[in-house]
Amino acid sequence: MQQLGGTHAHSRMEAELEELTKVLRSFGVLTYHNLKELSGALRWGGPHFDHVLHEGIRAGRIRKLGDELYELAD
Fold first, then answer.
1. What are the backbone angles phi and psi of residue 72, rounded to the nearest 5°?
2. I want to staple 14 with a disulfide (CB 3.0 to 4.6 A). Which of 9, 42, 57, 74 is the partner?
3. Strand, coil or helix: what is 32?
4. What's the pLDDT score for residue 2?
């Protein structure tokens, strides 16, 4: 699997993860539903948003604060 990070989007997932981090950088702490809406993920289709969000958490770029809250990791 491709390593996420760096300055350029090298895949669809990386581009979508960049969008999530951009939204969190702009708004701070967001609920799951607000992050999905503000990032444009409603049009990504299927469970893809969940997959990208979980990859962002795994990669240390997004922090889950509770059941429904997320923020940009330091």
1. -70, 130
2. 9
3. helix
4. 46
